[in-house]
Amino acid sequence: GENVEQHPSTLSVQEGDSAVIKCTYSDSASNYFPWYKQELGKGPQLIIDIRSNVGEKKDQRIAVTLNKTAKHFSLHITETQPEDSAVYFCAARGQGAQKLVFGQGTRLTINP
Amino acid sequence: DTAVSQTPKYLVTQMGNDKSIKCEQNLGHDTMYWYKQDSKKFLKIMFSYNNKELIINETVPNRFSPKSPDKAHLNLHINSLELGDSAVYFCASSQGPTSWETQYFGPGTRLLVL
Lengths: 112, 114
Prior knowledge:
Shape of chain B: globular
Number of strands of chain B: 11
Helix content of chain A: under 10%
Structural class of chain B: mainly beta
Order of helices and strands of chain A: EEEEEEEEEEE
Distance between the termini of chain B: 34 Å
Largest sheet of chain A: 6 strands, mixed
Largest sheet of chain B: 7 strands, mixed
Order of helices and strands of chain B: EEEEEEEEEEE
Helix content of chain B: under 10%
Largest interface: A-B, 27 and 23 residues
Number of strands of chain A: 11
Radius of gyration of chain A: 13 Å
Radius of gyration of chain B: 13 Å
Oligomer: heterodimer
Number of helices of chain B: 0
Structural class of chain A: mainly beta
Shape of chain A: globular
């Protein structure tokens, strides 16, 4: 089955700097890769997703890149702000698969 | 309006007890899920229902039994609670069960077994 590895487990950056979180997946048939943000005491919320037919997707300060050959995808947050502090999860889902497999999570802290 | 709601938000109980967690979604979705998040934040699916039919049943002890009375509700009943059941349980829903349907999560139920 699918296995998703996420790094780093913790990340601390200065406000205004960029943050990058990386994930690798094992199933070459996976075709959907969402990223979720979980704030303290809340459930995960989708912030951006990418399908396997594109290599990059951007939404304001957030972007996701996908390298299907290497089976890895990354989340990029630019001009970080204090409200970006949260735990971020990547996930992958195979074609025809009925479940998302999540990475271990990255705790991102933005230092003012 | 709350899209996916869960009750209770906190649940503290003794080992051996039986408890239930309720979930409701008002998004008109066909598919609902239960996830378990352990103390290390690892998020793992437990069950999924589509149109009240069970479609995902991960390796979960028989003490956990989901029930979907209708498409908008998915409840989780846990028998004979154990210390290791302490975790945050999230309900989620999606339009359908296909690959790229966005999943919307509830706020979670924090279960502590003493």
